[in-house]
Amino acid sequence: MVLIWKIWVNAGTPKKALKLCDAILQRMDAVVLEKMIEPYPKINGFMIMFSVRIESGTWNDAVVEAIDLGQRVGHGWLLGGFVYENANGWCNRPSVSGVVCMEWNLSKQSGGATILTDAYDHAVAG
């Protein structure tokens, strides 16, 4: 299974934004499958989307693993979605300075180069 993340960062350049993303990933101790970055004018910064593989084999364990990864990088998570099909989390209390807020979505899809691209296309189409 794949966990898709979005993080919004206050950074003046893409290089600084990716450095903040790397700090998040280091705290997660996660390996990135895909990563995309785009300007986000509402905060004069950037939004970074990335995906990480969830190692748990069952859906219930994958949800717990997603929550665990979130707790490594932020506090006060708001959980949403239908827990049996589409779990997600939102946090505006990240533990990395410069990160404004974060979101994760748990996908039952496994691997493949189009997961993040499809999620991005869906978010842009809105």
List keywords for this structure.
126 residues, disordered C terminus, six-stranded antiparallel sheet, 3 helices, globular, alpha+beta
Strand-helix topology:
Elements: E1 2-9, H1 14-28, E2 32-40, E3 45-53, H2 59-73, E4 78-82, E5 86-91, E6 99-107, H3 115-125
Antiparallel strand pairs: 1-3, 1-6, 2-3, 4-5, 5-6
Q: What do you see in this structure?
A:
The protein contains three helices and six strands. It is an alpha+beta fold and 126 residues long. The protein has a single domain (2-125), classed as Alpha-Beta Plaits, CATH 3.30.70. A hairpin with a 3-residue loop joins strand 4 and strand 5 (86-91). Residues 110-114 and 122-126 have low confidence and may be disordered.
Summarize the structure.
With 126 residues, this protein is α+β, with helices and mostly antiparallel strands. It contains 3 helices and 6 strands; from the N terminus they run E-H-E-E-H-E-E-E-H.
One letter per element, helices H and strands E, the order comes to EHEEHEEEH
How many beta-strand segments? 6
At the first level of CATH, the class is Alpha Beta
The global form is globular
CATH architecture: 2-Layer Sandwich
Given helix and strand content, the structural type is alpha+beta
The tally of structural domains comes to 1
How much helical structure, as a percent, in the residues?
Answer: 25-40%
Q: What Rg, in angstroms, do the CA atoms define?
A: 14 Å
How much of the sequence lies in strands comes to 35-45%
What's the assembly state of these chains?
Answer: single chain
The first-to-last residue Cα distance is 24 Å
